[in-house]
Amino acid sequence: MHLLSSFARTRLHVTLAASRIFSRMSSATKEGRLRIGWQDVHFVEAGQGSRGLILLPGALGTAWTDFRPQIEKLPLLLPQHKLIAWDPPGYGKSRPPEKQFSLDFYERDAASAHELMQKLGFDRYSIAGWSDGGNTGLIQAANHPDHVEKLIVWGSNSYISDAEAKIYEDIRDVSKWSARMREPMEAVYGVEYFPKLWSAWVDGLLRIHKECEGDICSTKLSKIKAPTLIVHGAKDPMIIPEHVPYLLNNIKNSDIHVFPEGKHNIHLRFADEFNKLVATFLKT
User: Fold this and answer.
1) What is the pLDDT of residue 178?
2) Which entry of 112, 126, 131, 158 is annotated as an active-site residue?
3) Phi/psi class of residue 124: alpha, beta or left (left: φ > 0; alpha: ψ in -120 to 50)?
């Protein structure tokens, strides 16, 4: 089906040859682990600046699978910043324990991301969040308005519509994906564990849709103080178009930039243009 193939292609781009990504890490980066709450969290640092920017990956994503072009190239455009890209709890190298998709898993990720930045010495910092990471970033900026300087989100939504609930259900069964689409995710999580984790993610979102009337963080948007840039791929198959004006209308100091040919992974497909956009927004 079209939605399945579009989504699978996106995840292929962000996870293809993950082992080679790790082997090509720049000497200007380093990896670390910190105890956050009751578990260890893995993160990557890039750049030498005194200002902080945390990169929040998408569903099942990790620092290197989702943000390699940003980790490797953004520090050159943002010499005053240090980039922190993490594996959210339960993803990638931030395991064990395994991810639990409770109704508040976005809230818990937002709390952990904030604690990570505080422990790394950034009392104030900026956020760039993609897809699920953007949802986390919206919550993080709303819950800690005096600590978040600027916010950038793309491919994100503050609520789950009926149409999106159907999309999630339609992409649940990874056995329907081609081997070419499955294998990159299997390289990160293993052949047996990947479909279990993916299905658990789908279940988590469907529970939010059913038990929370689809609300992820819509009621929190008015609490965001940080200047916010909403970046949108006009051909994104995963986000229904109504989310863009909704975010613009409900986040006070917000603006938008549209990639007319962009889909869900605009920061990867149009990496150089995206990086320049981010750098300009953070420096102004």
Assistant:
1) 74
2) 131
3) beta
